[in-house]
Amino acid sequence: MELRGAVAVVTGASSGIGAATALALHDAGATLVLHGRDTARLAELAERTGGAVVTGDLADVAAVPALAEEMLARFGRVDVLVNNAGVGWAGPFGEMTAQDVRRVVDVNLTAPIELTRALLPALRVRPAARVVFVTSIAGRTGVAGESVYSAVKAGLDGFAESLRFELAGTAVRIGVVVPGVVDTEFFARRGRPYERSSPRPVPAARVAAAVLRAAREDRADQYVPRWLRLPVLVRGVLPGVYRGLAARFGGSG
Ligand SMILES: NC(=O)c1ccc[n+]([C@@H]2O[C@H](COP(=O)([O-])OP(=O)(O)OC[C@H]3O[C@@H](n4cnc5c(N)ncnc54)[C@H](OP(=O)(O)O)[C@@H]3O)[C@@H](O)[C@H]2O)c1
Predict the structure, then answer these.
(1) Residue 104 C-alpha to ligand 1 middle, in angstroms?
(2) In CA terms, which of 52, 68, 100, 248 is 20 to 30 Å from 13?
(3) Taking every annotated instance into account, which residue ranges of this chain make up the domain Ketoreductase (predicted)?
(4) Whether the CB of 85 sits within 6 Å of ligand 1
(5) Does residue 2 form part of some domain?
């Protein structure tokens, strides 16, 4: 798909992977609708890219259809939707409050499903359209201390895969980008910094490049970094071996 001239909505554009994706899409000639809550950061990004800003809290899932209307109204069409916004939570599951659970589920799973539902009719009338989901390796392997986050990212993966089958033969293609550890504010925001020595965090721009490949080249599934495919493969073929290795070397925080 040609990104020059395409209208691209990026959720969570105010920070990290979303901001890097917005800049990469701008460099590729796309027209941007920048979403987030942080108005100052979004205004700065809009200044750099000429994009339009739409603010809204994705925890308020009932408001997502109105948010979609606003996004669509900015340029009268949408060709690319990047469902990137997300929030983490780390710690023992028993310490999560019902409110914590609701926020993680709503922002990471219900909101992107709702936004996709609301924008799909507009995407379907375009000659070519893309929906890209930023999920997580946590959703493919499970991680101790991130049970609800892992569950919603796995849910988003399942939604994307099903939608890809359902929309086969239409102009709307679905891509999933599965990052490992990325150097963003994600860890500080969730309240538990990333302290392991490996794997080393990758720059957000690398994930952004994968999002652009998903849109341009219709790539269904990409891991960043690419070697992350390996543990997922081992888990699929030899789950007992995987669990033994994960218990020893990782998968636990
Ligand atoms: N960093 C990693 O290691 C990593 C690994 C795997 C997957 N991911 C996924 O990558 C995506 C981007 O994360 P990031 O690393 O770039 O983190 P980040 O720097 O913390 O950015 C998160 C973005 O999501 C937006 N957001 C969070 N809660 C929101 C809410 N309630 N309503 C609206 N927007 C909200 C934030 O916007 P405001 O600040 O303006 O509210 C921000 O733009 C997430 O889906 C995350 O799960 C990250």
Answers:
(1) 11
(2) 100
(3) 6-177
(4) yes
(5) no
